[in-house]
Amino acid sequence: MHDVLPEDADLIRFIRDTAERVARLYDYRQITTPIVEDASVFLHTAGDESDIVQKEVYLFEDRGGDRLALRPEGTAAACRAYIEHGMSSRPQPVRLFYFGPFFRYDRPQAGRYRQLTQFGVEAIGTDSPAADAELIDLQLTLYRELGFPADELILRINSIGTAETRRRYAEVLTAHFQPHLGTLSRDSQRRFETNILRILDSKEDAAHPAVIDAPSILDYLSEDDAAHFEAVKSHLDALDIRYEVDPRIVRGLDYYARTVWEVEPPGAGGQSTIGAGGRYDGLIEVLSGPSTPAVGFATGIERIALNMRERGLGPAEERAPDVVTIPLGEQGALAAARAAAMLRAAGVSVRNGLPGRSMKAAMRAADGSGARYALIAGDTEADAGTVVLKPLRGDEEQRTVAVADLAEVFADRA
After folding, report:
1. Cα separation, 189 vs 196, whole angstroms
2. pTM of this prediction?
3. What is the pLDDT, as a whole number, of residue 270?
4. What domains sit in the chain, N to C, each tagged with a CATH number?
């Protein structure tokens, strides 16, 4: 896990504010689910052999004996809330977004921590290919608004059909990988027994000839699945969104269906993926709700921030305070504090200096802060109800100002 230091906080805040603004442009509304959930929300939906269950979930029992989990992802929690609060009675699809911390006990990597932050968007209650394309468009719009050049983003899409499609395809993969099993990584050998489709997105075996030459799931789609995928591509074409069809993008769980995608900047391979999405038409049903199609994506904020720093993207440097006070003497310190409170109430940012420093040291600190003005208050000024306003930038003249007039003086300089 990691700390977000002040110099990083502005970038995280910029990403969050941009994500929320873009989501609202598409009329998605915010949902916030608890950080702690009943463990079954994730264990039942993820499957016993998934990476989340095998390696990642923080599980514990509370004092009442209930089995709880720190949430490892947001989609299952959003779907649980959809069922629990009767959102199926609302106009469909229900359009949701979330932003917050998640927890995975996984090997830390560049831009990936055991406490991570994600932005996610879900459209629950539609099987339309247009919804798949809209979410892809929303995701890419977010990255563009954050400063990523559109022509640098690589969108990879695939269709994984339905659960029945994948059962047939798994039989084909079994026959294909069986002769090569001894040359695959230990993790892929485990997946051969438990979740064979996941061999296709193995990072360890990505360059293995058997993986490269594996049959494509696109050749085993049903007529309806193929038509849905063609419709998604048509919508992306209409939106002038460039994409690559990549049959090795898969999901291993039965509730996933049809469209899946990933987005990455060029040049760094799989660990550079900054966001992924897909359709999960069976998830609500797994959570004991009615059969409800849905689609969504999630994007890791730390991974985005890492890529933005590498490219010099992000907000301007943190704004300096407008004023730094320089209190001199006991009464001057009280007067400076009162003047600072008055200015802050008027929307002027003030760093209140601490008494006891020499005038020279205090002026040096004020100038180093980047502030526009130093506000000097000594005992003499306190008795007179005034302060000295000394410009630290430009050629404006120093002057004495009545404390009662300070807000008006700064209103003229806004």
Report:
1. 9
2. 0.87
3. 47
4. 6-162+222-310 (3.30.930.10), 323-411 (3.40.50.800)
